[in-house]
Write a structure and sequence with these properties.
The complex is a heterodimer.
Chain A (H helix, E strand, L loop, with lengths): L1 E12 L2 E13 L4 E5 L6 H8 L7 E6 L2 E2 L5 H11 E4 L11 H11 L4 H14 L4 H4 L8 H13 L5 E5 L7 H17 L3 E6 L2 H6 L2 E6 L2 E2 L2
Helix pairs in contact in A: 3-4, 3-6, 4-6, 6-7
Chain B lengths: L2 H8 L4 H39 L2 E6 L14 H8 L4 E12 L13 H10 L15 E6 L14 E5 L10 E5 H6 L7 E4 L2 E10 L3 H4 L2 E4 H7 L8 E6 L5 H12 L3 E5 H44 L1 H9 L4 H42 L11 H19 L7 H28 L3 H5 L2
Parallel strand pairs in B: 3-8, 5-7
Antiparallel strand pairs in B: 1-9, 1-10, 2-3, 2-9, 4-7, 5-8, 6-7
Helix pairs in contact in B: 1-11, 2-9, 2-11, 2-12, 2-13, 9-11, 9-12, 9-13, 11-13
The chains are: A alpha/beta, B alpha+beta.
């Protein structure tokens, strides 16, 4: 499903060139819950940004379902991110003045789905992640951390993406809630046949995943 | 929820800040509308003043100084030369004379007073009137066209009783001013003595000023005949086909009559009368531009601040599939809502403040213009009168809020929103969604 071949990403800071990702190749089959683990500064978030087409690699090739996303133009990248990728962020990154329901409806609005269909699917997704209609009407400030991350996962699923990329999805949660979220992601990978790649520095999450990639100083060490 | 709806909703995300922005914008937009209304009110008044003052040129014998002498009077040949000049549509000839007590049984309604006595003494006449108090003569003016009021040096001529005479005849008839009529117990069909003949009163007039109402008006030929000044003319009022041709006609008259005449254009008076209006117009225009710039800068800074604050949110929206255009539309809608609210309050502020501010502008730019140069004392008086009339209209300026002003207000709001959002929109387009992950 996902194939990464010899990708590198360099950043220039003043006179110094930093190789955040250095000649990485990997492959993730469809419906797999995979993790990328490494310490801070190891390059895992940069790798995630490259996989999600949020950034372009300095060199190398990334193919998703045999499409090379590194050669896509801006317009195609927008539709790729909208239709094929779902993002889950460490800080949830929900729009604060929208309700949980409206947050989940957002990607569907961008995809041009009619409002009634958006609402129906958003309510279904919130139910799948364990949030009832009452919680659906609340704004992020009135949700707990675990509930906020569930909304973010529901939002990531909105357009039935082939790939969900999660950046430290349990980083802001207590261990018990974090486990619930990891179980939810694993369940979704199986039931929705969605490939999930989560970046983490938590070994317990890596242990729970089917495939783990370890990064150190921008290089894959396993 | 659509992009625009989300933008509208975002405008009320922080109520206190939105209130402050709307308040500041409303002051800028209100000021812009006040200045627009002032500009238009002044522009209309300038047109009105130009129309009121009219397209007249006064031709008087060179060097003449009222009744103190100087210069030689004009004659019909001079008028003929003037009439032949292109764009001259009409000429009205005038002759004036003093009726002293030895020439008439009329008594002037105005006392000489200290000023009159002093002037008389300074003129050298005291030698003959050492022990006699000076008595004001009655002034008589004559014209061959009563429709040209400036030929009689009046701005209006209301006939309060009787009727006007035929100015082309040489009948012994007169129109007399209301003050002169009251002083001498005269009414329509009464007669008075002048130049040894009976003159019939055919009408009584009110010309609006004590000075004018103390006069008598006669047909031109009548006065020429009675005063023994055949073919003599004190001044000629020349009507020009349009204001644009005033300068050319003035130059051509000066060329045709040479040093014999002083030519005074009402355009000079007009220019002096509208000078303060032009000042107000300029101030209004610059203030209008300044207010618009201030509004745009306020919105620009606000939107820049908002965009910077929501940089991560913009990155998230891009990451989950929004296009640059969608995000720019959302922020522009937010800016438009703020400016429309600012406009609504600004229009109310403009309606309340327009006239007080216009009054302040007027009072700071008012000065009575000096009358036109040349001619005799009567013409100076006329110049002052016309200018004072313009000054009067200056004080009567008023700015009004109409539908067009409200539409202008909305246009201003949209313009400010577009300008104020342009650079923040550019910043939005440059936000890279990867920054969201990097800032985690």
């Amino acid at each position: 499903m996902l194939k990464v071949k010899n990708i590198s990403k360099q950043f220039v800071s003043g006179d110094t060139t930093v190789k955040a990702v250095n000649d990485i190749s990997l492959s993730v089959p469809e419906g797999t819950f995979a993790t990328i683990i490494g310490k801070s500064g190891s390059g895992k978030s940069t790798l995630l940004a490259l996989l999600g087409a949020l950034d372009k690699p300095t060199q190398g090739q990334i193919t998703v379902d045999d499409k090379d996303i590194t050669k896509m133009g801006d317009r195609h990248l927008i539709s790729y991110r909208r239709d094929s990728i779902g993002f889950v962020f460490q800080s949830y990154n929900l729009v604060p003045n929208l309700t949980a329901l409206e947050n989940v409806m957002l990607p569907m609005e961008f995809a041009g789905l009619k409002t009634d269909k958006q609402k129906k699917r958003a309510l279904e997704l919130l139910k799948i992640v364990g949030l009832d209609d009452q919680k659906a009407g609340r704004r992020p400030a009135r949700l707990s951390g675990g509930e906020g991350q569930r909304v973010a996962i529901a939002r990531a699923l909105a357009n039935k993406p082939r790939l969900i990329l999660a950046d430290e999805p349990t980083g802001n949660l207590d261990s018990q809630t974090g486990k619930v979220i990891v179980d939810l992601l694993k369940k979704l990978a199986k039931e929705e046949k969605t490939t999930i790649i989560a970046v983490t520095h938590d070994e317990s999450i890596a242990a729970a995943s089917e495939l783990t990639f370890r990064l150190k100083d921008g290089k894959l060490i396993k | 929820m659509g992009t625009i709806t989300r933008g509208i909703k975002n405008a009320f995300r922080n109520n206190l800040r939105s209130f402050s922005i709307v308040l500041i914008l409303s002051i800028a937009i209100g000021m812009a509308l006040v200045m627009l209304m002032s500009y238009r009110a002044v522009q209309n008044k300038i047109e009105s003043v130009k129309n009121n003052i009219g397209n007249f040129i006064t031709v008087a014998p060179a060097g003449i100084r009222g009744f103190e002498g100087g210069g030689s009077l004009l004659n019909s040949d001079d008028v003929s030369k003037i009439s032949q000049i292109e764009a001259v549509t009409k000429t009205a000839k005038t002759l004036m004379d003093h009726l002293a007590t030895d020439k008439t049984n009329l008594q002037a309604p105005t006392e000489a007073g200290n000023f009159g006595q002093r002037q008389r003494m300074q003129s050298g006449a005291t030698n003959q009137t050492t022990n006699h108090a000076f008595v004001m003569p009655v002034m008589v003016s004559a014209t061959d066209d009563l429709s040209v009021l400036s030929s009689l040096n009046v701005s209006k001529l209301d006939i309060t009783s009787g009727e006007k005479f035929d100015a082309t005849t040489e009948d012994n008839v007169a129109l007399i001013g209301s003050s002169l009529a009251t002083k001498n117990n005269l009414s329509v069909s009464s007669t008075f003595q002048a130049y040894g003949q009976d003159i019939k009163v055919v009408g009584v007039f009110d010309a609006g000023t004590e000075f004018s109402n103390a006069q008598a008006f006669m047909p031109l030929k009548t006065l020429q005949k009675l005063s023994g000044q055949n073919d003599q003319i004190n001044s000629v009022v020349v009507q020009v086909s349009s204001i644009d041709k005033m300068s050319d006609v003035t130059a051509n008259i000066e060329k045709a009559l040479g040093d014999k005449a002083d030519v005074t254009s009402s355009q000079d008076t007009s220019n002096q009368a509208i000078e303060p209006l032009e000042n107000i117009k300029t101030i209004s225009l610059y203030s209008l531009i300044g207010s618009l710039i201030a509004g745009a800068v306020i919105l620009f800074l606000t939107m820049t601040m908002i965009v910077r604050e929501r940089r991560r949110e913009i990155g998230v929206l891009k990451a989950i599939g929004s296009s640059n255009a969608g995000i720019v539309t959302q922020f522009s809608s937010e800016a438009l809502v703020l400016t429309l609210l600012g406009s609504a309050v600004g229009i109310i502020l403009g309606a309340i403040l327009s006239n007080p501010i216009l009054n302040v502008l007027v009072s700071n730019n008012s000065s009575v213009p000096t009358p036109g140069a040349g001619g005799h004392s009567m013409m100076m008086r006329m110049g002052a009168g016309v200018a004072a009339g313009a000054q009067g209209t200056l004080q009567n300026l008023s700015a009004n809020v109409g539908v067009d002003i409200i539409l202008y207000g909305l246009g201003v709001a949209i313009l400010i929103a577009i300008i104020g959002s342009a650079i923040p929109a550019f910043v939005i387009s440059k936000v890279r969604p990867a920054e969201v992950l990097r800032s985690e």
